[in-house]
Write a structure and sequence with these properties.
- α2 packs across α5.
- It is built from 8 helices and 2 strands; from the N terminus they run αααββααααα.
- It is mostly helical.
- The chain starts with a helix and ends with a helix.
Amino acid sequence: MAENKKTQDKQAKGPDRKANRRGAARLAAVQALYQMDIGGAGINDIFAEFESHWLGGEVEGDKYLPAEAAFFRDVVSGVVRDQAKLDPLIDEALSKGWPLKRIDAILRAVLRAGSYELEHRKDVPGRVVVSEYVDVANAFVDGDETGMVNAVLDQIARQFRADEFARAGG
């Protein structure tokens, strides 16, 4: 029993711990932004609900990974604060004829969160941000739509992180 506890402690302190907590925070942020978009919930209500029920909790039998709450709050509040600037940027990156308002609400949330993080979270490599949000989108939609998320976020990443993408050769 004590050996098992030590093994669990070691695994919890491994290099993936922060990444997993951030991944869970990204997923929760997208769900929160989606809920705000379709339900009109306010940011304070969303924070209270997610921090008490979703982040690291169990909902309808599904266990959610512990999320980095500060990262979750930063992404959600940043998207809310910068949405008027992010939406035209995303619109420009989308294929002509498909404005952001025609995109499914969950994909709008993914694109907004990813765009916010690309602009403001320089502590996270751009390619990691794009990959993480493609994974989040994959939890909700099929391959064609995740391809669109990848293309749009890649284009936005090249605007906000041109030097990073130039150094990496592409």
